[in-house]
Phosphoglycerate dehydrogenase (Nocardioides caricicola), 404 residues
Amino acid sequence: MKVLLLENIHPVAVEILEARGFDVELRAGSLSEDELVAALSPQDGPGVNLLGIRSNTHITPRVLDAATDLQAIGCFCIGTNQVDLAAATERGVAVFNAPFSNTRSVVELVIGEIIVLARRLAEKTEKMHAGVWDKSAKGSHEVRGRTLGIVGYGNIGTQLSNLAESMGLRVIFFDTADRLAHGNARRMRSLDDLLAEADVVSIHVDGRPGNAGMFGAEQFAKMKPRSLFINASRGMVVDDVALRENILSGHIAGAALDVFPVEPKAQGDAFESVLRGLDNVILTPHVGGSTQEAQEEIGYFVSGKFVGFALEGRTELSVNLPSVQAPQLHSGHRIGYLHHNVPGVLAGINGILADSGDNITAQYLSTRGEQGYVVTDTPDPLPDEALAKLAESEHTIWLRTWES
């Protein structure tokens, strides 16, 4: 099977996949839509079966239509909003991500930024490099006793909550979902309530379309005067122009951003932002999860999902297909059948198996929305005519087989 990994994915992913017999190509940068169409389309032989990306490669319906051999996409990061999930699901292409692997790295970056902003260290070091000795405590504060407001209390938000408390910060949070408060953190009933109380606001929401533009001029106006703002979630969440205006007016004392509405596609490309050149504003190139530890863990985790799916039909932790956690296939044969979720499909599968005289040793199934997925283990291979009958069903999305 052919694997294409883009955007400098950690070499451990290559090692794991090649050890299991995959043909792996690793590229440094992301690809445009036209480049993806050319790279993924079957040319003189089979096309790419597994595609690994990070945040700068965007998978559109046109790309998926061209990639006729594509079975799965691995997002070697937390987010999956760079993939048209509806289009991938419709075509039966599994999408995996790494929802936990870089959590600690992002949190450590945010903790560092809180201290750097509160002490105005970026300005201090810039002046020192310019030969200016500015030994002043003006605008410099401890973080102990300050209130951190976390918007989005998921994997990253909760770990940030724990570390911030250990440093002496008071923690409040707001999330639209029900979340258990960690430690002494307090849930706020509304975003407005959080903004009115927080000395530091840190955004940790996901990339769903409803979060686009959620933080703009209205929200900045409701923040406490001289508070700090951090965004290490998604660039499209924050109105950077409104943030610039609040920095220039002095209402916001400092900000740190690791994500931007438009980001360069490759190393060395020009970076443009209205936030460039502002005092006490930290700009980093989407490196929240870019530590060696996080990237190695992500490479290990997502490549493992690729192996489990491609070689054994397992879909656990897929973000779009029905989740089936079948055990490792030690003996016999396995059939993976993704189908439209309508009544009678499972009975039909088992009827075909019974008619062919094949016994079922184990069966695992799940449904998700308009799709169902069933994994069936048998001691003997299903006859070709039985497989053809299943494949030709009007309910079939795809049918795959494996043997131990």
Notes: The chain is about 30% helix and 20% strand. The chain has a mean pLDDT of 94. Residues 339 and 396 are 5 Å apart (CA to CA). The chain has three domains: 1-102+291-320, 103-283, 329-404.
